[in-house]
Design brief:
The complex is a heterodimer of chains A (310) and B (397).
Chain A lengths: L1 H8 L4 H22 L9 H12 L10 H26 L9 H22 L3 H31 L6 H10 L7 H17 L11 H4 L9 H26 L9 H21 L6 H24 L3
Chain B lengths: L4 E5 L11 E7 L2 E8 L7 H5 L4 H9 L8 H14 L5 H29 L3 H22 L8 E2 L2 E2 L8 H23 L2 H7 L7 H7 L3 H5 L7 H4 L20 H28 L14 E10 L2 E10 L6 E5 L1 H5 L3 H5 L4 H10 L4 H4 L17 H18 L1
Antiparallel strand pairs in B: 1-2, 2-3, 4-5, 6-7, 7-8
The chains are: A mainly alpha (310), B alpha+beta (397).
Chain lengths: 310, 397
Amino acid sequence: MAASLFYFFVFPGILFAATVGALLSWFDRKISARVQFRKGPPLLQPFYDFFKLLLVKETILPKQGSPLVFLLAPVLAVFGAAMSGVFILLPLFNITTGFRGDLLVIFYLLTVPSFSYIIGALASGNPLAAVGGSREMKLILGYEVTFLLVIAGVIMKCGQHFDLNTIIQTQQDGSPFIGSVSGVILFIVAIFCVQAKLALVPFDMPEAEAEITEGIFIEYSGAAYAMIKLAKYIMFFILPAFIVALLMGGFNLHGINILWAVLKVIAVVLLLTLIKNTNPRLKIKQAIKFFMIWMNLLAVIALVLIAFGL
Amino acid sequence: MSKKTLIPIGPYHPLQEEPELFKLYCDGEIVKDIKWETGYNHRGIEKLSESKTYEQVFFLVERICGICSNSHPFAFANAVEEIANIEITNRTKYIRSIIAELERIHSHLLWVGLAGHFLGYNTVFMWAWKYREPTLDLFEMITGNRNSYGMFKVGGVRRDIEESKIPVIQNVLDDIKKKTDLLAGAVMDDPVIHARTKGVGILTLQDVIDYGAVGPTARASGLEIDVRKDDPYAAYPLVNWKVITAQAGDVFAKAEVRLLEMYESISIIEQCLAGLKKEKEGDIEVKVREIPEGIGNGRAEAPRGEVFHFVMSDGSTSPVRHKIRAPSYVNIATFRKSCIGQTIADATISLAAVDPCYCCTERMAVAYDIHSGKKILNAEELISISVKRTREIKDSD
């Protein structure tokens, strides 16, 4: 029991994942700034942001809507993110081996933050949040099938095993899945799914600043918004880590290999950041079309290739 | 009949730099109706102008708009010079045109950046604004100010562009041309930008004529309207250039027109610089003793379209009536055509595509009773109406 609580709250759960996520989000902001000829924030800026919201800023509740649901939604988001973080990171750091079928649990838990945002947005009673919420819903419908196809591809590649530990072991014994044609295709599709899950440009229409002024988060302030930031930091670490686990051979934590593990995560984040900085925002219709047709097509092609053993 | 949700854009909104309120009545994501409320920014410039001397009015009208802060003095100078029947020197003409065109470059670059920002493409935003910076430095070198240049006066300009500055200006222009190539390449060839802007917010040629739109908004729909050609002033008849038009009328066409106009502006400036070399240095003003009685109409092509100034003089030192019409005043009306039926995402970029400037546009109307000729809504009445309305809003909470 004590170990479980430690796993959840400290390592590799909320505290660890959020800290690494915050550092990665600094990396993202710094790279974005350099791409845009700006200087960029100092290293600890994400922490300043978080603690300012948590400790200094006032939490304002919307008059209309349901305050209880509005406040619970960010907490739910943090729990969803941390739970999926635990299930992803425990096998990844080789602490426990997880259990049979934990991949599907992770898949479901990863959608919890998005759904919490929608619930919170709809509970705020703001029309802009409602638009944002409906966009987020449509976006989830768009990318979830594609993401499931990616996971199906990985399961097929490692010989019908449903647990993350075996997937990582298979890759470490053999070679990472990304080393094959189908692996590369799966990687491309997975990157776009993660981009959408993190609501980064070009898939940031639920938040779309210039259209609906942060949409789903418009009414959040103070500690409640700090919780959302926390959930976002955690997601910003565990989703790239999940890709590393699924396709890039996971982490090998012996000696110099630790550096490799770090570099893998940073490489994925860098890719996300560069996509974010070289594209305008899509419209929701175009985003759904992008996933429903093109990404699904790519994923199916990858599945066929896997069936032929490529 | 489904219930429409009100999506407010404003009074303060990241989409606009100035306070204004657009009410989008939406069914789901589709905009069904649009209402526009303004009045957050009224400063009474026209009335103020009547209490200033002609020399002071230049500094006043310059402050109507921070971005096109040269077009208003330009139009005002044209109007006053028409009253006094002043023929300005060629050197003045060239300098005035150089400043106007530099302003067009910096204004269009600013718009490209903002449009990128509205599409969520912050890289274009930052790049365009960085490339705009040398233009502002040029302004500082030529006029002493980065913005609100204070260059114009009746019958001339305040500072000369000396021979020694010409190579510097030329260097910056070459640089801007290169940067514009880069930016145009990034914007015009990006498939995602095409997907977001092509076929969005279309204004047909007929719409543009019906609404009386001006500037790039009209030119993007194929209407060849440009004061610089239609009613030539300053150095524009002396140099070679063409009016840029596009046919599609969508957001992409508006961006295209603006980007291509920047090349035209650069070429105009280069020709003006060549013209400057032929004229005698220091010959930048004609002495004006007094402004006689009369009326004058001044027009100038601002980056956003035609600026119109009407000035009435009674022979004293200040105008008795000064009427201003800025381009946004007519362009904003086209929103009804371009936004209704679009999604919110498309409507916002359509709003931004005409490059609206609200502080130019704000008006106050005074109502007179037709029979007695008395003012019916005076200041006290207006204040009491406003107080009453505020109370109503407060009570309805």
